[in-house]
Amino acid sequence: MPSETRVPENVDGKYFVTAACIDCDTCRCIGPAHFRRSAERGYSYVCLQPATPAEVEQVEEAMQCCPVGAIVAEDIDSPNGGLSSRLSTQTGGAEEVSILGINGSLRERSCSFRALEHAMNLVSDMGCKTEIFDVRRAHLPFCNGNRTDPRPEFPEVSALRRLVSNAHGLILATPEYHGGMSGVLKNVLDLLDIEHLEGKVVGCISVLGGQQNSNALNDLRQVIRWCHGWVIPEQVAIPRSADVLSGNCDWNAELLERFGEFASSLVLATRKLAGLHPVVAAPRPHTPVAAPAFQAANHNGIGRQQTLVQVYAI
Ligand SMILES: Cc1cc2nc3c(=O)[nH]c(=O)nc-3n(C[C@H](O)[C@H](O)[C@H](O)COP(=O)(O)O)c2cc1C
Ligand code: SF4
Q: Given the CA of residue 107, which atom of ligand 1 is nearest to it?
């Protein structure tokens, strides 16, 4: 049975489960009244169509959380009877490009997080929809080797997979740890699979305590390629993070330019791969200023108009 095929047990109506179902139980936990398991065949099906707005919300949530996009909503109001699903919004005709940022340090005063925020602000200025998955706020388990396990006791695994699947492009920012990406970010990538990462355009940023090198960036590049993502050639490595943190460095303008090129390339490549109009506005210039005094590390309070140095002033 092709994966796009509805399983026969679905009741008639807008929502249905396809043969892509991997019997993960997520939908049945979210909407037990609407999804049931076929014990004989080992998959879910829609046993009751939602009637009230609250029920629709529940079924839509299950649709969003389904790790393989097996729950589909038929657009019965469309003259073509078109289908809409998680996957169709990923690559469909929507003009808005969505970029998801993921950080790789658990430190509250993380320099790589600040770098990520800066890059996200730039792509937002270029008209992208942006969201950051902040690993410091997420309760993620170690990858347990089960590639399809949705880990119901860790709902953020499903949320992570959904966010990545729905994004057109990603920005990954890691500290360099022992010549590679951090274990935290590698674990995030291990919790994902090719089906979530393939076709994503990915930009990589690293922050180092020592001299500039590309070790962590090469590490990231290799892993993303392995998962069939497209890493852009532009990348940012920020050396001597302690100097950057104190504002004691003289290459802010060069770094700012590099961030600008990085952001433009990411948005352009993402739009091209998504089949959208490739015109990209240049990022707004961010003027370097003297580093302000230490500000309490509250990333929610960091304004979008900040300069790079402010971004790093932690
Ligand atoms: C376990 C560990 C390993 C590290 N390995 C390296 C390294 O190989 N090269 C380097 O330049 N800095 C290394 N550093 C320094 C970090 O890259 C640097 O402190 C960075 O700013 C941390 O990022 P964050 O501020 O986002 O947490 C290491 C730090 C830690 C904790
Ligand atoms: S969430 Fe998706 S994969 Fe999991 S049981 Fe439901 S339909 Fe199947």
A: 27
User: Does ligand 2 lie within 6 Å of residue 21's CB atom?
Assistant: yes
Residue 3 has phi, psi (to 5 degrees) of -65, -20
313 closest CA partner among 228, 231, 249: 249
> Half-sphere exposure of 88 toward its Cβ, with a 13 Å CA cutoff?
12
* Each residue's pLDDT tens digit, 222-269: 999 999 999 999 999 999 887 765 555 555 778 888 999 999 999 999
Domain ranges of the chain: 15-91, 98-312
The third-level CATH classification (topology) of the domain covering 15-91 is: Alpha-Beta Plaits (3.30.70)
Q: Is the CB of 68 under 6 A from ligand 2?
A: yes
Q: For residue 247, is it left (φ>0), alpha (ψ between -120 and 50) or beta?
A: left
- What is the CATH code for 98-312? 3.40.50.360
Question: What is the Å distance from ligand 1's center to 293 Cα?
Answer: 23
Across-strand partners of 132? Answer: 101
Closest ligand 1 atom to 173 CA: 26
Which residues touch 289 (CB under 8 Å, ≥6 apart)? 307, 309, 310
- Residue labelled with tokens 């200023």: 289
Residue 77 has pLDDT above 70, yes or no: no
Which ligand minimizes its atom distance to the CA of 65? 2
How far is residue 61's CA from residue 46's CA, in Å, rounded to a whole number?
14
pTM of model > 0.70: no
